[in-house]
Amino acid sequence: MGVRALREAADPAVHPELGEPWQVEKLYYDRIQNFDRFHTVYQAIAAEHGADERIERMLEMFRERPLPGDHAGALRRLLEQRDAALRSHASQV
């Protein structure tokens, strides 16, 4: 829903009565619900309440959904650099 709203906000043909279109440069939250995360949450719920066929279909949809970017790799490198700097200046921490 959020991605659709983001796209439609930039489209002047969609809801022109709401004013000028505008475009957001970046959207990060939509990648939070990736397959691994959704699967882990579903397993916990299914263990307590039983399986749900509708949710299992959604889970398959998430499994096939490609993730266009991986910010974790860039962040991991920055954190490693930060940790190395902190270790080399341990007396200042």
UniProtKB/TrEMBL annotation:
SUPFAM superfamilies: LmbE-like
InterPro entries named among the record's database cross-references: LmbE-like_dom_sf
Source superkingdom: Bacteria
Identification of the protein by name: CAZy families CE14 protein
Organism of origin: uncultured Corynebacterium sp
